[in-house]
Amino acid sequence: MTDTDPTLSVRDIQKSFGPLHVLKGVSLDVARGEVVTLIGSSGSGKSTFLRCMNLLEIPQSGTLKAGARQFTFGNGERTPRDAELALLRRDVGMVFQHFNLFPHMSALENIAEGPVQVKGTPKAEAHELARDLLAKVGLAEKADTFPARLSGGQKQRVAIARALAMKPDVMLFDEVTSALDPELVGEVLNVIRALAADGMTMILVTHEMAFAADVSHRVGFMSEGVMAEIGSADEVIRHPKHPRLISFLERFRQASGG
Amino acid sequence: MYLWDFTALKPYWGLIWQGLGVTMLYTVITVLAGVVIGLVVGIGRTSGPRWLSAPLRAYIEVFRCTPLLVQLVWVYYALPVLVGVDMSAATACFLTLSLYAGSFYAEIFRGGIEAIDRGQWEAGRAIGMRQRRIFRRIVLPQAIQVMIPSFINQTILQLKNTSLVSVVAVGDLLYQGTVITAASYRPLEVYTVIAVIYFAVLFPVTLVADRVEQRMGAHR
Protein backbone atom coordinates (compact mmCIF):
# COMPACT_ATOMS: atom_id res chain seq x y z
CA MET A 1 0.00 0.00 0.00
CA THR A 2 1.48 3.30 -1.11
CA ASP A 3 0.16 6.85 -0.90
CA THR A 4 1.79 7.97 -4.13
CA ASP A 5 -0.38 5.96 -6.47
CA PRO A 6 -4.09 6.37 -5.73
CA THR A 7 -6.16 3.77 -7.58
CA LEU A 8 -9.23 5.86 -7.06
CA SER A 9 -9.39 9.53 -6.34
CA VAL A 10 -12.57 11.52 -5.83
CA ARG A 11 -12.33 15.21 -5.02
CA ASP A 12 -14.79 17.84 -3.87
CA ILE A 13 -17.84 15.84 -4.82
CA GLN A 14 -21.11 17.75 -4.58
CA LYS A 15 -24.43 16.05 -5.13
CA SER A 16 -27.97 17.24 -4.68
CA PHE A 17 -31.28 15.51 -5.20
CA GLY A 18 -33.64 18.38 -5.87
CA PRO A 19 -33.45 20.66 -2.84
CA LEU A 20 -31.61 18.02 -0.81
CA HIS A 21 -27.88 18.76 -0.64
CA VAL A 22 -26.54 15.27 0.05
CA LEU A 23 -22.80 15.68 -0.57
CA LYS A 24 -21.18 18.99 0.25
CA GLY A 25 -17.72 18.59 -1.18
CA VAL A 26 -16.38 15.18 -0.19
CA SER A 27 -12.93 13.89 -1.17
CA LEU A 28 -11.21 10.54 -0.85
CA ASP A 29 -8.01 9.05 -2.24
CA VAL A 30 -7.71 5.29 -2.11
CA ALA A 31 -4.33 3.64 -2.60
CA ARG A 32 -3.82 0.34 -4.37
CA GLY A 33 -4.61 -2.53 -2.02
CA GLU A 34 -6.20 -0.26 0.53
CA VAL A 35 -9.47 -1.03 2.31
CA VAL A 36 -11.48 2.02 3.33
CA THR A 37 -14.73 1.79 5.24
CA LEU A 38 -17.30 4.55 5.37
CA ILE A 39 -19.53 4.72 8.42
CA GLY A 40 -22.20 7.16 9.50
CA SER A 41 -25.90 7.30 10.24
CA SER A 42 -28.42 6.86 7.46
CA GLY A 43 -28.83 10.02 5.46
CA SER A 44 -25.22 11.02 6.05
CA GLY A 45 -24.49 10.63 2.33
CA LYS A 46 -22.13 7.65 2.54
CA SER A 47 -24.04 5.46 0.08
CA THR A 48 -24.49 8.33 -2.35
CA PHE A 49 -20.78 9.05 -2.10
CA LEU A 50 -19.99 5.42 -2.87
CA ARG A 51 -22.37 5.47 -5.85
CA CYS A 52 -20.54 8.53 -7.17
CA MET A 53 -17.37 6.44 -7.36
CA ASN A 54 -18.69 4.34 -10.26
CA LEU A 55 -20.95 7.14 -11.43
CA LEU A 56 -24.22 5.40 -10.75
CA GLU A 57 -24.86 8.88 -9.42
CA ILE A 58 -23.44 11.73 -11.47
CA PRO A 59 -22.11 14.48 -9.17
CA GLN A 60 -22.96 18.12 -9.82
CA SER A 61 -19.33 19.06 -9.32
CA GLY A 62 -15.99 17.55 -8.45
CA THR A 63 -13.55 15.18 -10.12
CA LEU A 64 -13.17 11.42 -10.29
CA LYS A 65 -9.98 9.65 -11.25
CA ALA A 66 -9.84 5.89 -11.61
CA GLY A 67 -6.65 4.50 -13.11
CA ALA A 68 -6.10 6.42 -16.33
CA ARG A 69 -9.69 7.62 -16.55
CA GLN A 70 -10.63 11.07 -15.38
CA PHE A 71 -13.98 12.80 -15.14
CA THR A 72 -14.71 16.39 -14.24
CA PHE A 73 -18.17 17.54 -13.29
CA GLY A 74 -19.81 20.95 -13.19
CA ASN A 75 -18.46 24.15 -14.74
CA GLY A 76 -20.19 23.43 -18.02
CA GLU A 77 -18.50 20.03 -18.43
CA ARG A 78 -20.68 17.72 -20.48
CA THR A 79 -22.25 14.70 -18.83
CA PRO A 80 -20.21 11.55 -19.55
CA ARG A 81 -21.57 9.39 -22.32
CA ASP A 82 -23.03 5.92 -21.78
CA ALA A 83 -19.95 4.34 -23.38
CA GLU A 84 -17.52 6.27 -21.14
CA LEU A 85 -19.46 5.31 -18.05
CA ALA A 86 -19.47 1.68 -19.14
CA LEU A 87 -15.68 1.71 -19.52
CA LEU A 88 -15.20 3.19 -16.05
CA ARG A 89 -17.45 0.57 -14.50
CA ARG A 90 -15.40 -2.28 -15.92
CA ASP A 91 -12.65 -1.13 -13.58
CA VAL A 92 -14.77 -0.16 -10.60
CA GLY A 93 -16.96 -3.05 -9.49
CA MET A 94 -19.90 -2.78 -7.15
CA VAL A 95 -21.89 -5.07 -4.87
CA PHE A 96 -25.34 -3.95 -3.76
CA GLN A 97 -27.34 -4.25 -0.58
CA HIS A 98 -30.10 -6.16 -2.40
CA PHE A 99 -27.78 -8.35 -4.50
CA ASN A 100 -29.55 -7.52 -7.77
CA LEU A 101 -28.67 -10.88 -9.28
CA PHE A 102 -30.20 -11.55 -12.69
CA PRO A 103 -33.08 -13.90 -11.81
CA HIS A 104 -33.33 -15.40 -15.30
CA MET A 105 -29.74 -16.66 -15.23
CA SER A 106 -28.04 -19.37 -13.19
CA ALA A 107 -25.32 -18.44 -10.72
CA LEU A 108 -22.71 -19.36 -13.33
CA GLU A 109 -24.39 -17.30 -16.06
CA ASN A 110 -24.72 -14.34 -13.72
CA ILE A 111 -20.97 -14.33 -13.23
CA ALA A 112 -20.06 -15.01 -16.86
CA GLU A 113 -22.44 -12.36 -18.22
CA GLY A 114 -20.06 -9.44 -17.73
CA PRO A 115 -16.96 -11.05 -19.26
CA VAL A 116 -18.91 -12.47 -22.23
CA GLN A 117 -21.10 -9.47 -22.99
CA VAL A 118 -18.82 -6.61 -22.05
CA LYS A 119 -15.32 -7.91 -22.64
CA GLY A 120 -16.11 -10.40 -25.39
CA THR A 121 -14.46 -13.25 -23.50
CA PRO A 122 -15.21 -16.60 -25.20
CA LYS A 123 -18.03 -18.38 -23.42
CA ALA A 124 -16.01 -21.45 -22.42
CA GLU A 125 -13.29 -19.30 -20.91
CA ALA A 126 -15.81 -17.11 -19.08
CA HIS A 127 -17.54 -20.17 -17.67
CA GLU A 128 -14.23 -21.51 -16.43
CA LEU A 129 -13.53 -18.17 -14.78
CA ALA A 130 -17.01 -18.21 -13.27
CA ARG A 131 -16.44 -21.71 -11.85
CA ASP A 132 -13.16 -20.58 -10.29
CA LEU A 133 -14.85 -17.60 -8.73
CA LEU A 134 -17.74 -19.69 -7.44
CA ALA A 135 -15.21 -21.98 -5.80
CA LYS A 136 -13.49 -18.95 -4.34
CA VAL A 137 -16.70 -17.76 -2.66
CA GLY A 138 -17.44 -21.31 -1.54
CA LEU A 139 -20.30 -22.05 -3.91
CA ALA A 140 -18.72 -24.42 -6.40
CA GLU A 141 -21.73 -26.74 -6.26
CA LYS A 142 -24.24 -23.97 -7.00
CA ALA A 143 -23.13 -23.20 -10.56
CA ASP A 144 -26.42 -24.22 -12.16
CA THR A 145 -28.68 -22.94 -9.40
CA PHE A 146 -30.93 -19.97 -10.11
CA PRO A 147 -30.93 -17.04 -7.67
CA ALA A 148 -34.42 -17.83 -6.40
CA ARG A 149 -33.03 -21.06 -4.94
CA LEU A 150 -30.14 -19.41 -3.09
CA SER A 151 -30.13 -18.03 0.44
CA GLY A 152 -29.41 -14.34 0.95
CA GLY A 153 -25.82 -15.03 1.93
CA GLN A 154 -25.30 -17.24 -1.11
CA LYS A 155 -26.84 -14.64 -3.39
CA GLN A 156 -24.52 -12.00 -2.05
CA ARG A 157 -21.49 -14.24 -2.56
CA VAL A 158 -22.56 -14.86 -6.16
CA ALA A 159 -22.95 -11.10 -6.56
CA ILE A 160 -19.41 -10.59 -5.28
CA ALA A 161 -18.15 -13.22 -7.74
CA ARG A 162 -20.05 -11.47 -10.54
CA ALA A 163 -18.28 -8.20 -9.75
CA LEU A 164 -14.90 -9.94 -9.46
CA ALA A 165 -15.36 -11.58 -12.87
CA MET A 166 -14.71 -8.19 -14.50
CA LYS A 167 -11.32 -8.17 -12.74
CA PRO A 168 -11.89 -4.65 -11.43
CA ASP A 169 -9.18 -2.46 -9.91
CA VAL A 170 -11.50 -1.37 -7.13
CA MET A 171 -14.55 -2.94 -5.50
CA LEU A 172 -17.34 -0.92 -3.91
CA PHE A 173 -19.54 -2.61 -1.30
CA ASP A 174 -22.78 -0.82 -0.53
CA GLU A 175 -24.14 -2.14 2.80
CA VAL A 176 -23.83 -5.66 1.46
CA THR A 177 -24.85 -7.38 4.69
CA SER A 178 -27.72 -5.08 5.67
CA ALA A 179 -30.40 -7.16 3.95
CA LEU A 180 -29.16 -10.46 5.35
CA ASP A 181 -30.42 -12.52 8.25
CA PRO A 182 -27.90 -12.17 11.09
CA GLU A 183 -26.70 -15.76 10.83
CA LEU A 184 -25.78 -15.24 7.14
CA VAL A 185 -23.70 -12.11 7.64
CA GLY A 186 -20.57 -14.00 8.60
CA GLU A 187 -20.19 -15.98 5.37
CA VAL A 188 -20.29 -12.77 3.31
CA LEU A 189 -17.88 -10.93 5.59
CA ASN A 190 -15.48 -13.88 5.35
CA VAL A 191 -15.41 -13.56 1.58
CA ILE A 192 -14.68 -9.84 1.86
CA ARG A 193 -12.00 -10.52 4.43
CA ALA A 194 -10.35 -13.00 2.07
CA LEU A 195 -10.42 -10.40 -0.71
CA ALA A 196 -8.75 -7.89 1.59
CA ALA A 197 -6.06 -10.46 2.35
CA ASP A 198 -5.57 -10.90 -1.41
CA GLY A 199 -4.82 -7.20 -1.67
CA MET A 200 -8.05 -6.12 -3.40
CA THR A 201 -8.66 -2.38 -3.23
CA MET A 202 -12.03 -1.90 -1.59
CA ILE A 203 -14.35 0.77 -0.32
CA LEU A 204 -17.14 -0.39 1.95
CA VAL A 205 -20.19 1.24 3.37
CA THR A 206 -21.23 -0.83 6.36
CA HIS A 207 -22.85 -0.90 9.75
CA GLU A 208 -20.67 -3.81 10.85
CA MET A 209 -18.44 -1.77 13.15
CA ALA A 210 -16.32 -4.63 14.47
CA PHE A 211 -15.70 -5.90 10.97
CA ALA A 212 -14.81 -2.38 9.80
CA ALA A 213 -12.31 -2.02 12.63
CA ASP A 214 -10.84 -5.41 11.81
CA VAL A 215 -10.48 -5.30 8.04
CA SER A 216 -10.01 -1.61 7.17
CA HIS A 217 -6.83 0.34 6.74
CA ARG A 218 -8.80 3.52 7.15
CA VAL A 219 -12.27 4.37 8.38
CA GLY A 220 -14.12 7.50 7.34
CA PHE A 221 -17.04 8.91 9.29
CA MET A 222 -19.52 10.82 7.18
CA SER A 223 -22.05 13.18 8.64
CA GLU A 224 -24.40 15.67 7.01
CA GLY A 225 -22.74 15.35 3.63
CA VAL A 226 -19.12 15.84 4.68
CA MET A 227 -16.25 13.54 5.69
CA ALA A 228 -16.29 14.55 9.34
CA GLU A 229 -13.40 12.36 10.38
CA ILE A 230 -11.08 9.91 8.65
CA GLY A 231 -8.12 7.94 9.90
CA SER A 232 -7.03 4.51 11.00
CA ALA A 233 -9.68 2.23 12.42
CA ASP A 234 -8.06 2.60 15.81
CA GLU A 235 -8.24 6.38 15.68
CA VAL A 236 -11.77 6.65 14.35
CA ILE A 237 -13.55 3.81 16.11
CA ARG A 238 -11.60 3.54 19.38
CA HIS A 239 -10.47 7.14 19.86
CA PRO A 240 -13.08 9.30 18.11
CA LYS A 241 -12.66 13.07 18.30
CA HIS A 242 -15.56 14.54 16.37
CA PRO A 243 -18.55 15.08 18.72
CA ARG A 244 -21.03 13.64 16.21
CA LEU A 245 -18.84 10.58 15.73
CA ILE A 246 -18.66 10.08 19.49
CA SER A 247 -22.45 10.20 19.81
CA PHE A 248 -22.88 8.00 16.68
CA LEU A 249 -20.63 5.30 18.18
CA GLU A 250 -22.37 5.72 21.51
CA ARG A 251 -25.79 5.15 19.94
CA PHE A 252 -24.37 2.25 17.98
CA ARG A 253 -23.03 0.54 21.08
CA GLN A 254 -26.34 0.92 22.88
CA ALA A 255 -28.27 -0.46 19.91
CA SER A 256 -26.02 -3.50 19.57
CA GLY A 257 -26.06 -4.06 23.32
CA GLY A 258 -22.29 -3.74 23.56
CA MET B 1 -88.32 -28.92 -30.27
CA TYR B 2 -85.93 -27.60 -32.89
CA LEU B 3 -84.66 -30.15 -35.40
CA TRP B 4 -80.99 -29.60 -36.08
CA ASP B 5 -79.93 -30.19 -39.65
CA PHE B 6 -76.25 -29.65 -40.19
CA THR B 7 -76.38 -31.39 -43.58
CA ALA B 8 -78.01 -28.22 -44.92
CA LEU B 9 -74.60 -26.55 -44.58
CA LYS B 10 -72.90 -29.06 -46.84
CA PRO B 11 -72.75 -26.85 -49.95
CA TYR B 12 -71.24 -23.98 -47.93
CA TRP B 13 -68.20 -25.56 -46.31
CA GLY B 14 -65.95 -23.97 -48.91
CA LEU B 15 -67.18 -20.54 -47.87
CA ILE B 16 -66.67 -21.34 -44.21
CA TRP B 17 -63.07 -22.41 -44.71
CA GLN B 18 -62.47 -19.36 -46.83
CA GLY B 19 -63.88 -17.18 -44.07
CA LEU B 20 -61.69 -18.89 -41.49
CA GLY B 21 -58.69 -18.26 -43.74
CA VAL B 22 -59.48 -14.54 -43.86
CA THR B 23 -59.97 -14.44 -40.09
CA MET B 24 -56.63 -16.15 -39.49
CA LEU B 25 -54.87 -13.93 -42.00
CA TYR B 26 -56.21 -10.75 -40.38
CA THR B 27 -55.30 -12.05 -36.96
CA VAL B 28 -51.73 -12.97 -37.87
CA ILE B 29 -51.00 -9.82 -39.84
CA THR B 30 -52.57 -7.37 -37.41
CA VAL B 31 -50.99 -9.10 -34.42
CA LEU B 32 -47.56 -8.82 -36.06
CA ALA B 33 -48.13 -5.19 -37.01
CA GLY B 34 -49.58 -4.55 -33.56
CA VAL B 35 -46.52 -6.05 -31.86
CA VAL B 36 -44.22 -3.81 -33.90
CA ILE B 37 -46.32 -0.74 -33.10
CA GLY B 38 -46.62 -1.80 -29.48
CA LEU B 39 -42.87 -2.30 -29.09
CA VAL B 40 -42.03 1.07 -30.64
CA VAL B 41 -44.70 2.92 -28.65
CA GLY B 42 -44.10 1.00 -25.42
CA ILE B 43 -40.34 1.50 -25.49
CA GLY B 44 -40.87 5.09 -26.65
CA ARG B 45 -42.93 5.71 -23.56
CA THR B 46 -40.51 4.10 -21.11
CA SER B 47 -37.19 5.32 -22.46
CA GLY B 48 -37.91 7.78 -25.26
CA PRO B 49 -37.56 11.57 -25.12
CA ARG B 50 -40.00 13.35 -22.85
CA TRP B 51 -41.79 15.32 -25.60
CA LEU B 52 -42.77 12.03 -27.24
CA SER B 53 -44.61 10.74 -24.20
CA ALA B 54 -47.77 12.86 -24.52
CA PRO B 55 -48.53 12.08 -28.19
CA LEU B 56 -47.92 8.37 -27.61
CA ARG B 57 -50.19 8.45 -24.60
CA ALA B 58 -52.85 10.22 -26.67
CA TYR B 59 -52.66 7.54 -29.36
CA ILE B 60 -52.99 4.75 -26.81
CA GLU B 61 -55.94 6.30 -25.01
CA VAL B 62 -57.85 7.13 -28.21
CA PHE B 63 -57.69 3.52 -29.33
CA ARG B 64 -58.21 2.02 -25.90
CA CYS B 65 -61.14 4.20 -24.95
CA THR B 66 -63.30 3.96 -28.08
CA PRO B 67 -65.03 0.78 -29.27
CA LEU B 68 -63.23 -1.05 -32.04
CA LEU B 69 -66.45 -1.20 -34.04
CA VAL B 70 -66.72 2.58 -33.96
CA GLN B 71 -63.06 2.88 -35.01
CA LEU B 72 -63.58 0.53 -37.96
CA VAL B 73 -66.64 2.33 -39.20
CA TRP B 74 -65.02 5.70 -38.66
CA VAL B 75 -61.84 4.80 -40.52
CA TYR B 76 -63.79 3.23 -43.38
CA TYR B 77 -66.49 5.88 -43.84
CA ALA B 78 -65.31 9.10 -42.20
CA LEU B 79 -61.56 9.14 -42.72
CA PRO B 80 -61.72 8.95 -46.55
CA VAL B 81 -64.05 11.95 -46.58
CA LEU B 82 -61.72 13.97 -44.35
CA VAL B 83 -58.47 13.00 -46.04
CA GLY B 84 -59.86 12.61 -49.53
CA VAL B 85 -58.24 9.22 -50.02
CA ASP B 86 -60.36 6.22 -50.83
CA MET B 87 -59.52 3.17 -48.83
CA SER B 88 -60.60 -0.38 -49.49
CA ALA B 89 -62.46 -2.12 -46.70
CA ALA B 90 -59.52 -4.52 -46.38
CA THR B 91 -57.02 -1.67 -45.91
CA ALA B 92 -59.25 0.14 -43.44
CA CYS B 93 -59.62 -3.04 -41.42
CA PHE B 94 -55.92 -3.81 -41.47
CA LEU B 95 -55.06 -0.28 -40.36
CA THR B 96 -57.63 -0.11 -37.59
CA LEU B 97 -57.03 -3.58 -36.19
CA SER B 98 -53.26 -3.04 -36.17
CA LEU B 99 -53.48 0.32 -34.44
CA TYR B 100 -56.00 -1.06 -31.99
CA ALA B 101 -53.80 -4.05 -31.12
CA GLY B 102 -50.74 -1.78 -31.01
CA SER B 103 -52.29 0.47 -28.38
CA PHE B 104 -52.99 -2.46 -26.08
CA TYR B 105 -49.66 -4.16 -26.72
CA ALA B 106 -47.86 -0.87 -26.02
CA GLU B 107 -49.35 -0.74 -22.55
CA ILE B 108 -48.54 -4.40 -21.94
CA PHE B 109 -44.92 -3.89 -23.01
CA ARG B 110 -44.55 -0.69 -21.03
CA GLY B 111 -46.00 -2.34 -17.94
CA GLY B 112 -43.66 -5.30 -18.34
CA ILE B 113 -40.57 -3.17 -18.74
CA GLU B 114 -41.47 -0.91 -15.83
CA ALA B 115 -42.16 -3.89 -13.59
CA ILE B 116 -38.47 -4.76 -13.67
CA ASP B 117 -36.64 -3.53 -10.59
CA ARG B 118 -34.34 -0.53 -10.99
CA GLY B 119 -31.64 -2.61 -9.32
CA GLN B 120 -31.46 -4.81 -12.42
CA TRP B 121 -30.45 -1.82 -14.53
CA GLU B 122 -27.92 -0.80 -11.88
CA ALA B 123 -26.45 -4.29 -11.69
CA GLY B 124 -26.01 -4.26 -15.47
CA ARG B 125 -24.34 -0.85 -15.32
CA ALA B 126 -22.09 -1.96 -12.49
CA ILE B 127 -20.52 -4.66 -14.66
CA GLY B 128 -19.88 -2.20 -17.47
CA MET B 129 -22.86 -2.93 -19.69
CA ARG B 130 -24.33 -0.20 -21.84
CA GLN B 131 -27.99 0.77 -21.71
CA ARG B 132 -29.08 -1.03 -24.85
CA ARG B 133 -27.39 -4.24 -23.86
CA ILE B 134 -28.88 -4.10 -20.37
CA PHE B 135 -32.27 -3.69 -21.97
CA ARG B 136 -31.75 -6.60 -24.35
CA ARG B 137 -29.95 -9.04 -22.05
CA ILE B 138 -31.30 -8.24 -18.59
CA VAL B 139 -34.55 -6.28 -18.67
CA LEU B 140 -36.35 -7.58 -21.76
CA PRO B 141 -36.10 -11.31 -20.96
CA GLN B 142 -37.58 -10.65 -17.53
CA ALA B 143 -40.17 -8.23 -18.88
CA ILE B 144 -41.35 -10.78 -21.45
CA GLN B 145 -42.02 -13.22 -18.66
CA VAL B 146 -44.15 -10.62 -16.90
CA MET B 147 -45.96 -9.75 -20.13
CA ILE B 148 -46.80 -13.20 -21.43
CA PRO B 149 -50.17 -13.78 -19.75
CA SER B 150 -51.61 -10.41 -20.75
CA PHE B 151 -50.01 -10.64 -24.18
CA ILE B 152 -51.68 -13.96 -24.92
CA ASN B 153 -54.95 -12.72 -23.52
CA GLN B 154 -54.85 -9.69 -25.79
CA THR B 155 -53.95 -11.83 -28.80
CA ILE B 156 -56.93 -14.10 -28.20
CA LEU B 157 -59.13 -11.02 -28.01
CA GLN B 158 -57.61 -9.83 -31.25
CA LEU B 159 -58.67 -13.00 -33.09
CA LYS B 160 -62.20 -12.59 -31.82
CA ASN B 161 -62.18 -8.88 -32.62
CA THR B 162 -61.48 -9.57 -36.27
CA SER B 163 -65.13 -10.68 -36.47
CA LEU B 164 -66.02 -6.99 -36.49
CA VAL B 165 -64.60 -6.59 -40.01
CA SER B 166 -67.74 -8.32 -41.27
CA VAL B 167 -69.52 -5.02 -40.64
CA VAL B 168 -67.70 -3.38 -43.55
CA ALA B 169 -68.19 -6.49 -45.73
CA VAL B 170 -64.77 -8.07 -45.42
CA GLY B 171 -65.26 -11.79 -45.94
CA ASP B 172 -64.14 -13.23 -42.64
CA LEU B 173 -65.64 -16.21 -40.86
CA LEU B 174 -68.54 -14.29 -39.35
CA TYR B 175 -69.30 -12.50 -42.62
CA GLN B 176 -69.50 -15.81 -44.48
CA GLY B 177 -71.79 -17.00 -41.73
CA THR B 178 -74.16 -14.15 -42.47
CA VAL B 179 -74.00 -14.91 -46.18
CA ILE B 180 -74.69 -18.61 -45.64
CA THR B 181 -77.54 -17.84 -43.28
CA ALA B 182 -79.19 -15.69 -45.93
CA ALA B 183 -78.87 -18.49 -48.46
CA SER B 184 -79.72 -21.51 -46.30
CA TYR B 185 -82.20 -20.10 -43.75
CA ARG B 186 -80.37 -22.11 -41.13
CA PRO B 187 -79.04 -19.47 -38.67
CA LEU B 188 -78.86 -21.80 -35.68
CA GLU B 189 -76.70 -24.35 -37.45
CA VAL B 190 -74.56 -21.70 -39.10
CA TYR B 191 -73.80 -19.65 -35.99
CA THR B 192 -73.31 -22.79 -33.91
CA VAL B 193 -70.74 -24.08 -36.36
CA ILE B 194 -69.02 -20.72 -36.44
CA ALA B 195 -68.86 -20.50 -32.66
CA VAL B 196 -67.43 -24.01 -32.52
CA ILE B 197 -64.76 -23.10 -35.08
CA TYR B 198 -63.68 -19.99 -33.11
CA PHE B 199 -63.51 -22.14 -29.99
CA ALA B 200 -61.62 -24.92 -31.72
CA VAL B 201 -58.98 -22.45 -32.88
CA LEU B 202 -58.60 -20.53 -29.63
CA PHE B 203 -58.85 -23.22 -26.99
CA PRO B 204 -55.62 -24.97 -28.08
CA VAL B 205 -53.94 -21.56 -28.09
CA THR B 206 -54.80 -21.09 -24.42
CA LEU B 207 -53.40 -24.57 -23.65
CA VAL B 208 -50.13 -23.75 -25.40
CA ALA B 209 -50.09 -20.43 -23.56
CA ASP B 210 -50.33 -22.18 -20.21
CA ARG B 211 -47.44 -24.45 -21.13
CA VAL B 212 -45.26 -21.56 -22.27
CA GLU B 213 -46.02 -19.62 -19.12
CA GLN B 214 -45.08 -22.58 -16.94
CA ARG B 215 -41.86 -23.26 -18.79
CA MET B 216 -40.72 -19.65 -18.78
CA GLY B 217 -41.40 -19.35 -15.09
CA ALA B 218 -39.64 -22.62 -14.30
CA HIS B 219 -36.66 -21.08 -12.53
CA ARG B 220 -38.73 -18.76 -10.36
Summarize the structure.
Chain A has 258 residues and is α/β, with parallel strands linked by helices.
What descriptive keywords fit this protein?
heterodimer, A: 258 residues, alpha/beta, B: 220 residues, mainly alpha, MetI-like fold, 8 helices
The ordered H/E elements of chain A are: EEEHEEHEHHHEHEHEEHH
**Major sheet characteristics of chain A:** 6 strands, mixed
Class derived from helix and strand content of chain B: mainly alpha
Low-confidence stretches of chain B: none
Cα distance spanning the termini of chain B? 54 Å
What kind of oligomer do you see? Answer: heterodimer
> Tally the helices of chain A: what do you get?
9
Overall mean pLDDT of chain A: 93
Report on this model:
- The complex is a heterodimer of chains A (258) and B (220).
- Chain A has 258 residues and is an alpha/beta fold.
- Chain A is 38% helix and 26% strand.
- In chain A, the strands form 2 sheets. Chain A has a 6-stranded mixed sheet, with helices on both faces. Chain A has a 4-stranded antiparallel sheet with strand order 2-1-4-5, covered by helices on one side.
- In chain A, a hairpin with a 2-residue loop joins strand 1 and strand 2.
- Chain A is globular, with a radius of gyration of 18 Å.
- Chain A starts with 5 loop residues before the first strand and ends with a helix.
- The mean pLDDT of chain A is 93.
- Chain B is mainly alpha-helical and 220 residues long.
- Chain B has one domain: Orthogonal Bundle (MetI-like fold), CATH 1.10.3720.10.
- Helices cover 79% and strands 0% of the residues of chain B.
- Chain B contains 8 helices and no strands.
- The longest helix of chain B has 35 residues.
- Classes of the chains: A alpha/beta (258), B mainly alpha (220).
- At the A-B interface, helix 2, helix 3 and helix 5 of A face helix 5 and helix 6 of B.
